[in-house]
Amino acid sequence: MANYQYRCAACGITWDQVTTKRQAEEEREQHRRECHGGGAPDGDGIGPGTAPWPSRGVLVIGLLVLALFLFYNGRHGQ
Ligand SMILES: [Zn+2]
Q1: How far is the CA of 28 from the centre of ligand 1 (A)?
Q2: Sheet hosting strand 13-14, strand order edge to edge
Q3: First CA to last CA across the chain, in angstroms?
Q4: Ligand 1 mean position to 14 CA, how many Å?
Q5: 10-residue block means of pLDDT along the chain (78 residues)?
Q6: What's the gap in Å between 10 CA and the centre of ligand 1?
Q7: pLDDT value for 78
Q8: From the CA of 38, how far away is ligand 1's center (Å)?
Q9: Comparing C-alpha atoms, which of 47, 46, 29 is closest to residue 38?
Q10: Which one, of 1, 15, 14, 3, lies nearest residue 48 by Cα?
Q11: CA proximity to 10, closest of 40, 50, 34
């Protein structure tokens, strides 16, 4: 799933990741209104989120399945 993240370079702030571009655009508009008088600060923009892949959850489940597989083979492979 794609993630979007709004960053304002002028303020040095990166917002939390959101799942739709629309949400990121709303955050951008709100921040521009509140902090920059409705103008666009230099260097602000919406980019892809920084979620690592595979995510930590997927990695943990994968290791768990591997451990169970090895455990099962160890018990029944004699
Ligand atoms: Zn800003």
Answers
A1: 9
A2: 13-14, 4-8, 45-48
A3: 43
A4: 10
A5: 89 94 96 96 90 72 94 79
A6: 5
A7: 58
A8: 10
A9: 29
A10: 3
A11: 40
| 77: phi then psi, degrees, rounded to nearest 5 | -95, 15
Cα separation, 34 vs 15, whole angstroms = 15
| The residue type at 9 | A
pTM over 0.70: no
Q: Which amino acid appears at position 60 of this protein?
A: V
Distance (Å, whole) CA 70 – CA 73: 5
| Nearest CA-CA partner of 27 in 1, 41, 47, 7 | 7
